[in-house]
Amino acid sequence: MTPPRPDDRSDRLLGLGERICRRDFLNAARLAAGGVLLGRLSPRELLAARDDWTGYGGVGDYHESNGNTRAVIDAAHVLRDRRFDGIPEDAVDTGEVFDLVVVGGGLSGLAAALLFDRQGAAGLTCLVLDDHPIFGGEAKRNEFIVDGQRLMAHQGSAFFPVPHQGGFVSRFYDHIGFDRHRLEYQSWGGPDPEIPLSQTSYDMLGRQGATYGFYFGARFGQRPGLWLVDPWGKRLEGAPISEQARAELLRWRLGDPGQTAPDAAPAYEGDPASRRLDTLTLEDHLMARHRISRETVRSFLSPVTGGGYGLGPDALSAYCGYAAEVQHPLDGDEEAGGQMFPGGNAGFARMIVKTLIPGSIDGPRTVEAVCRNRVRFETLDRPGQRARIRLRSLAVRVSHEGPPERSGYVSVAYARGGRLHHLKARAVVLAGGCWTAKRIVTDLPPAHRRACESFHRSPCLMANVAVRNWRFLYRMGISGCRWFEGLGNYLEVRKLATAGAPSPTIGPDSPTVLTLKVLYSHPGLPVEVQGSRGRDEMMSTSFRDYERRIRAQLQEMFARSGFDARRDVAGIVLNRWGHAYVNPQPGFFFGSNDRPAPREVLRQDPFGRLVFANTELAGAMDQRNCFLEADRAIRQLFDRGVLAGSRSG
Ligand SMILES: Cc1cc2nc3c(=O)[nH]c(=O)nc-3n(C[C@H](O)[C@H](O)[C@H](O)COP(=O)(O)OP(=O)(O)OC[C@H]3O[C@@H](n4cnc5c(N)ncnc54)[C@H](O)[C@@H]3O)c2cc1C
Fold it and tell me: Count of CB atoms within 10 A of residue 522's CB?
């Protein structure tokens, strides 16, 4: 799909001039800039005026925190542009000494703080530093009000499987007050015959059943585009693709009768099968396993087979295709299916914070109250509190005081409100990811630095598009679809968990949020080049350009079934993640050329008073791995005597 060219008339037809909720920020900005108050916007709306890169942020707790906003990025560029060899003289000494400072308030950092709080000796204190206006890292949510109904959608981390009972993850869930492990969802409402809906944002993508559609546009010579509903049930008959591509895709999807010896799938992490897979790219593995061409992989399979890793299979270790299942073999419940809080895994972040600081969210510690009620930001960082969370605070320098093996403290400097501050910690958990650890830890040993350099990250844009109804999909008999050109690759309608849904039922006339995940792969280029090119592209595109492309894409695909972008789009929030996904290359998991795997250097050999925790260390980015990596890191601090543990966890 060729990106639409800016043109006032077509912009108007697409609804770019409509006064919908996403336009509040533009109106507010215009008014604020002109100093004219026309009485149409409240002072609160004026305060919410945003730049035209960040765009509208929705309402509620996350309204200032949609992905990496301009403010977050500008602050982070301090790290890119400046090296802090010492504490600058003008930095404010807060005089604080914490037993533990956690850098990064995503699920890993929050879990580390909670596990430390529960397992540390009485009286120990902890501070979490995070650079965003709200905790959660990639596990955040957007909220929209559409025709009076409050809708939630994930900004990044979305779903979870039911964990196996009695394991660490299920005990962790119990511990944070989430003891049901499966949620109730909206039921079908209204007079129309029911069609299946997802519980998560990926169910239909996985199933691609009779109520799923494939769209083929100009790239396939189709003007207007062609829809194929129930593509696999129809064995791709009618798809405008070559016979070879059809045969290959059917082999990939439905099995290969010609395969003589099926590959041995890994049974456990580190077995010979998993090590062999880690020597290949996922692309080569898919080609050999299903007897398909590189072109078929790159044209049709990339976002499905590499989506959880941000890039296509050309860049990834073949073990990526198996890691999540092999690492958690007992999880999942077929009957219950994938699970998702209304705002995705932001639900876990909120449950952890509510457990750590009971007054942080209004109401009782139930899933419903924690989902629906507001965060009380003033409770997060109060003096005298055992656990504190300091937001809008970017750690810029972490360094032992003296030689790491003999030092008693770590000095931590952070930027907040345009000023540098510094404090002391007896130990530090680096939970922000290697892309930042390698810049802020000034005394990182060479082996650790090398290991950090091997963690490549690629960007992702999560565009949440609130629509007033999804009848245009229902009319076609679908609730989810895929396309192979233009922006994003798939979308699906999701029934929300009732713990945060605006209504107990959903039907084609209900408002919903459609999520478009945009990845930036450049197949064939080195993994680090793909990441930085993608970041450049995502960072240099304005909100308005993305909005235009999203509206044009939806209009092109759905106008014939009654969609009107101008009328039906109620709001758009862009969540830009510059370092969204780790991209494990061959050798990432088990090492190569007699070199240890980079993740093992960081996991097994923490140094001085610093330990590492982030989901990327597992190679599969997954909320369960956040909790497991956090647990390992905190145990390392106690086991190595850096801090005194006593309370049972
Ligand atoms: C688009 C997307 C979809 C995903 N979907 C799923 C899913 O459906 N299910 C699932 O289980 N997982 C999913 N994931 C994986 C997700 O990464 C994990 O579930 C989890 O949210 C990661 O938590 P984390 O704490 O390890 O890292 P992060 O969430 O990245 O948290 C790190 C935090 O540290 C902050 N930080 C970094 N450096 C500094 C510094 N110097 N100073 C202060 N703060 C700093 C960062 O800004 C961030 O807030 C998804 C990821 C993405 C990107």
Answer: 17
- Residue 504 has, within 13 A of its CA and on its CB side, a CA count of 1
Q: Is the CB of 345 under 6 A from ligand 1?
A: yes
Task: Among 141, 582, 615, 627, say which to mutate for ligand 1: greatest number of ligand atoms within 8 Å of CB.
Answer: 615
Q: Give CA–CA dist 453/81, Å, rounded.
A: 18
d(CA 330, CA 153): 28
* Sheet of 457-467, strands arranged across: 512-519, 457-467, 569-582
Q: What percent of the chain has pLDDT over 90?
A: 83
Q: Is 107 exposed, middle or buried (0-12, 13-18, 19+ CB in 10 A)?
A: buried
SS3 percent helix, strand, coil of the chain, rounded to 5, is 35, 20, 45
Is the distance from the beta carbon of residue 91 to the nearest atom of ligand 1 less than 6 Å?
no
CA distance linking residue 141 with residue 150, whole number of Å: 12
Atom number, ligand 1, closest to the C-alpha of residue 108: 25
Helix (H, G, I), strand (E, B) or coil at 208: coil
The atom number, within ligand 1, closest to the CA of 615 reads: 26
> Is residue 629 within 8 Å of residue 108, measured between CB atoms?
yes
Total-model pTM: 0.94
Task: Record the tokens describing residue 97, joined without a space.
Answer: 């000494």
User: Would you place residue 49 in the very low, low, confident or very high pLDDT band (cuts 50, 70, 90)?
Assistant: very low
DSSP for residue 625: H
Number of helices (H), then strands (E), belonging to the chain: the values are 23, 18
Helix axes 346-356, 107-119, angle to 10 degrees: 30
Q: What is the pLDDT of residue 12?
A: 85
Ligand 1 close to Cβ of residue 431 (< 6 A): yes
Please compute, for residue 221, the number of CA atoms within 13 A of its CA located in the half-sphere on the CB side: 4
Q: Please say whether the beta carbons of 611 and 633 come within 8 A.
A: yes
| Residue 265: pLDDT band with limits 50, 70, 90 | confident
Find out whether 389 and 380 touch, Cβ atoms under 8 Å: yes
Ligand 1 atom index nearest CA of 340: 8
